[in-house]
Amino acid sequence: MTRWQRLFPFLQWPRPDAALLRNEALAGLTVGLMVIPQGVAYAALAGMPLITGIYAALLPALIAVLFSASPRLSVGPTALTCLLVSASLTPLARPGSAEWVQLAVWLALLSGVLQVLLGLVRYGWLLNLVNSPVLMAFTQAAAVLIIASQLPALTGFRSWHAIAEQAGWHAPGLAFGLLSLAALIGVRRLRPGFPSVLAVVLLSAGVSRAIGFEAGGGAVIGTLPQGLPAPFLPGWPGWETLGALLLPTLMITLVSFLETASSAKVDNARQGRRWNQDQDLIGQGLAKLASGLSGAMPTSSSFSRSALNLYAGARTGWATVFSVLVVALALLLAMPLLHHVPLAVLAAIVVLPVWGLLQPSSFVRLWRLSRVEAVIAGTTFAITLLAAPRLYWGVLAGVVMALTHFLYLRLHPRIIEVGLHPDGSLRDRHLWQLPPLAPRLYALRMDAALDFATANALERAVAEQLQGAPDTQHVLLIAHPINWIDATGAEAFGRLREQLDDRRVHLHLVGMKLPVERLLAAAGHLDENERLHLYRTEAEALQAIEQGALVGPEPAPST
């Protein structure tokens, strides 16, 4: 790969021919027809002017495909990111107001800059701080909140307050919502590749206009501005407001890129390539910047649209280029067609893909695998729901709990006494009820690095053995699981050697890795000594045991 190809990933695309362009145009048309009504629906979820949902599917999608390492992903507005925008801005402004739009644009710009910087300095690994159970729990809690936010429109009410008072119910709105949801489910099961979203939108618009739905009090999309988006520069919000946007910015950056990761890993694995997460960070960040400068909200990769893109046969980024052309033509020519679409239909468009995120069985499977992680996931789910609209507390709590559990495990490494299993391997002596390898011999294995987190545990294990069995004359340390050692670990090893020497106990090291051996040698802890023995393999150590080299007490010093 040349330097220019690294800087501009689109230079790696294959040279198009007629067959390729025909195939990519079909895939792009399919995704483009889906993203238009979906973008409008997601803009409503974010509390933004509805047209901004289409703006977010235009220039951001083009920038992302040009500069990302995963060109077959569909970038634009997504339900989860739009929910985060809405939840983050609820305490700061009124939905749909000019101030709300300004703050949403700032969220797009700040998260975009952050992602670009993380990608440039190759810090994509930081996103691995959120483990799978925490992300699963947060996603499912967010899905519950998204569905709850769409229920009033789906059932013909203006708001949850209207539902509570049983006021303002509109029966035709309920009919549009439920029939649209049923049609989308049915078509997706029968013909997954069919542009069912666009078909339902156009059909509902025709029926709505024919029956006078808007005149009868029904809520519709209304008039959308026609034409391409103009450059948008937000006003300065002030340092206090900017500070209030920092946590939401971190949350949107984290969650939106994890959305990208879920699609990118699958796509790159299918192509047999290594996922370049740093380049995708840059591409996704530039897309967010483009969205903000278009007056829209933060974008992300849509799993459902990316899956549809692959299902439709997309092989390169040219499919997204055609998709962008479809969106641009729609902005120039087709906006009047959306005027009469009921908001209940938009609610159905949001609910259907989000419903698939609800998987209670995931918690059951996780409980069977790890009860601690299941508790962390359940707590994350509960806090996310209870803290709404401040959803970031759920992820923060989950990350803190997961890291605490990780640190606990690191500080309490698995240290076992080994015995010879009938199959010839060395295994946990107490678990398998095996006899000691030899009299007055303590054979142990630590399944961890020897560093500041584990050094005390190793010293404590040996000290407790010597205290409980003072006649111990040989300590055999299976060292091959120790693949890393730091200065603290080296100091602890030195103290261990001194302690054993004082008691005239032999130390036998088996299978020490070269980096560990070099550091201990540099620290002067592997100096030749009659009570220090090194073995390259377990077989050598077992042979020494059989020959009696590790058996027999050493005479105690005279007093």
Structural overview:
It is a single chain. The chain is mainly alpha-helical and 559 residues long. The chain has 2 domains: 31-223 and 249-359, no CATH class; 415-547, STAS domain (Transcription Regulator spoIIAA, 2-Layer Sandwich). 58% of the residues lie in helices and 6% in strands. It contains 23 helices and 8 strands. The strands form 2 sheets. Strands 4-3-5-6-7-8 form a 6-stranded mixed beta sheet. The longest helix has 28 residues, at 18-45. It is elongated. Mean pLDDT is 90; it is low at 552-559.
What topology emerges from the helices and strands here?
Elements: H1 3-7, H2 18-45, H3 51-55, H4 59-67, E1 75-76, H5 79-89, H6 98-120, H7 132-154, H8 160-165, H9 171-190, H10 196-211, H11 239-244, H12 246-270, H13 277-293, E2 300-301, H14 303-311, H15 318-333, H16 343-355, H17 361-369, H18 371-387, H19 392-411, E3 415-420, E4 426-428, E5 441-446, H20 455-468, E6 474-478, H21 487-502, E7 506-510, H22 514-522, E8 532-535, H23 538-546
Parallel strand pairs: 5-6, 6-7, 7-8
Antiparallel strand pairs: 1-2, 3-4, 3-5
Helix pairs in contact: 2-10, 2-14, 2-15, 2-16, 4-13, 5-12, 6-12, 6-13, 7-16, 7-18, 9-10, 9-16, 17-18, 18-19, 20-21
Transmembrane segments: 25-44, 50-68, 75-94, 100-121, 133-155, 167-185, 197-221, 241-261, 316-335, 341-358, 393-411
Domain STAS: 444-545
Membrane topology: Multi-pass membrane protein
